[in-house]
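lol ok so funny story. i was supposed to be doing the assay writeup but got distracted and ended up predicting the structure for this chain instead. priorities right. anyway since i did it might as well share w the group, maybe its usefull for someone
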Amino acid sequence: MPWVEVDVQAEIEKRRQADPEFKKAWDNSRMEYKLLGELQKLRNEQGLSQKDLAEKIESNQRVISKIERHEQSPTLTTLCNMANALNVDIVIVPRA
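and the output, tada:
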């Protein structure tokens, strides 16, 4: 069977336009993925392992792993603890 090239971004955008529930779910998940991705990037840039970060926030490596793999959403407290341990602020700004 030959491979068919698919423009995933275009397909997602079509679905977002056609289905308001999908649009809401997609948009909400993108914000979470972006935020957690930035925290993981910062952790790596600071040379911290998941275990190191977990110890700093009095948690365990398994929790950090699940959060970073998007298998578990962090509580607001955990998210703030992660940001504090990485010495960053979480700032809310209006969208352009």
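Residues 19-85 form a domain with the 434 Repressor (Amino-terminal Domain) fold (CATH 1.10.260.40). The chain is about 65% helix and 0% strand.
back to the writeup now i swear
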